Amino acid sequence: MDDLIRNLTRLGLTDYEARVYAALVGMGEGTARQIHLAGGVPRPRVYDIAEGLAARGFIAIRQGSPRVYVPADPAVVIRRLSGDLDAAATAALQGLEALSLDARSKNSPIRYVQGEWGIGRHLESLLAGLSRDLAVVCLDYREIGEFARQIADVSRDHPVSILLPNGRRGIGRPLGNASLYIPRPFCPFFQEKIFERIYCGLIPVDGSAFQLDYIFIADDRACMIVYRQDGLRSAVVVTLPFITCVQREFVNRMIANADCIGGQKSSGG
């Protein structure tokens, strides 16, 4: 019995809640007096504990004199407790990651991000601080739907340029007021050594394959590079001006030599 109570409390019940529910399961149903005797819970406490369990759907109350308490199916209760525990763990992890993100944002000009939630959280932070304009390099427009709402919202207040190195693939309609660009060849060295090799192809390194998904550049002050390593997506957020300014100049140069297929032609950064 002690092990059962410990396990139930680990799942989120209090000691008295665990004893009341376990006593009812053992009896099939019972009155407050019977629960008190079987579970060792002070009788005055049985009533409020039972009311709380009933409010959560863990037991039912059959009115009468005296009242009779009936336990819900243990599988249903355990499934509910497990779900609540998983939800609490997820919320706690997200809260801790948010605190960690805020701390890293203050201390490091280059930050490594893993997980879809972390990538989304960093993008929200990046866009929230936007003061002038946003440039996006998007390797496959079909995949941009995951960020469509954020991009469309930003485009209402700031110029947004989306560069599509792989052309018109997957284009339905622009995102909000964003301008879409398809780059043209303009510099042999840049075209071969940087654009085709880094922006558009797989990069093998030490047995791993790296592939660029997106680059988000907010003003000239911050950029987020979203990429896949052997299919697993991660990101790097950079606020170091030596890197962000160079990235923005690359993108500006490509936009200046691109065909605008939606929105207004940008004048660049």
TrEMBL record:
For this protein, the record's Pfam families field holds: TrmB (PF01978)
Tell me which residues make up the Transcription regulator TrmB N-terminal domain: 8-74
Task: Look up the domain of life of the source.
Answer: Archaea
List, alphabetically, the InterPro entries matched. TrmB-like, Tscrpt_reg_TrmB_N, WH-like_DNA-bd_sf, WH_DNA-bd_sf
**What protein is this chain from?**
Helix-turn-helix domain-containing protein
Tell me the organism.
Methanoculleus receptaculi
